[in-house]
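Researcher: Quick one. six chains, 504 residues in total.
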Amino acid sequence: MDYNPALPIYLQVMTAIKHDIVVGRLALGEKMPSVRDLAIQYTINPNTAGRVYKELESEGVCFTRRGMGTFVTEEEEKVLQMKEEMAGDLISQFLGGMRRLGISREEAIGLVARYQSKADADGNGK
Amino acid sequence: MDYNPALPIYLQVMTAIKHDIVVGRLALGEKMPSVRDLAIQYTINPNTAGRVYKELESEGVCFTRRGMGTFVTEEEEKVLQMKEEMAGDLISQFLGGMRRLGISREEAIGLVARYQSKADADGNGK
Amino acid sequence: MDYNPALPIYLQVMTAIKHDIVVGRLALGEKMPSVRDLAIQYTINPNTAGRVYKELESEGVCFTRRGMGTFVTEEEEKVLQMKEEMAGDLISQFLGGMRRLGISREEAIGLVARYQSKADADGNGK
Amino acid sequence: MDYNPALPIYLQVMTAIKHDIVVGRLALGEKMPSVRDLAIQYTINPNTAGRVYKELESEGVCFTRRGMGTFVTEEEEKVLQMKEEMAGDLISQFLGGMRRLGISREEAIGLVARYQSKADADGNGK
DNA sequence: GTGGTCTAGACCACT
DNA sequence: GTGGTCTAGACCACC
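Model:
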């Protein structure tokens, strides 16, 4: 994983973990890596890893049991909410960019519906 | 303007200028700031500013006359092409993010159509 | 190498390298000197050497891999095209000079066919 | 007229004048501009203009009569010789360039015979 | 005044 | 080690 130096690393790791939960790579209630393992896995400082879990817990994304470890929340509701929030961020960013290009929401929707990526459109990679 | 350290400054300035052209803040054929003024305006080195214009020219976005200055292209066609390209990039990035959340294009379109920004919900029209 | 002050150095070095490729002193796909070595070899600034490679790459003459180096293109087609282009430039310049002397293309061809260099006439084969 | 800083100006002016003679813009025996007028015409120093005539005279291209001025040679033979010499230089330079591209004289002749300039070949200027 | 080129020296990311 | 970017400051040619 490579980090955007403009953003705090702990935020970027939080986002990556939320992704894992939303798409099911981390199941509801599943045990998450130890702080030390998380630090190794993301090549970050153990202190930073600890902060990641602390912030995620404050958002209700996970909870910790002393001596047991950290676990993904068991509330499906919460996961749906996360998904909506992350999707909302994407949409907001997308519509903002389109607006800056002078493109309305309706036009944007039409464009998304018709969108063909370059790779799809033509058969060659160049 | 604050720069994303993950991207070359000259690319970010190029994008900002393209935006200005696409939305008409810079008109077709209009004289653009001198290399030195651009450097001041974006707080970059005159060399970097020169590179911005050179790269933009190689993309056909502007043209330059020695001793006269740099000018926005006079081909409206080119501006439309730029707009499409920039919109395409936004869509690609948007759909990629949604796919990573496990959301299909069709679902994404539905979400965009129903999307209400926080600001809108609060009654803030801006 | 001594440079013609009337032409940008980077263009002259580009031409020299293209010559090397066209006549096979630099083979298809072969690794080219590093930017720093090129700078030493041609007694130019590393920045200028980098520009040479960048411009050559934009012409499709070479390609570059980060951390690996710069390599001659692997497309023989491209080399043939370069050769034709460089020959075309020579011919254009030659015919232009002849025309300025009031000599037609047909006459020029006849002169070339009968041409004996001073060195040849003296029996010097080089 | 713009001068190539790599070559002495007086040589460049000499070449320009020889051109004028070879193509007949300056006729056999015609009076040439005074040293002062030549200096103005080519925006060079009068000393340099004097040197131009001195060198041309030493080559037999012109002759001077005290109190009368400088005149183009009256020997048609000489003009032919100049033309041949200048054409020979062009041919030598041309064949040298071709040889450096690995192209023989015979091939070069074929290319010249078939040569179509870009402008001639296609009807558009771009 | 305009853009174009060059040098010097620095820091970065990738291998 | 590789190329890529950026700054600083200089000189040039053109208008």
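DSSP finds six helices and two strands in chain A.
Researcher: Thanks, that's what I needed.
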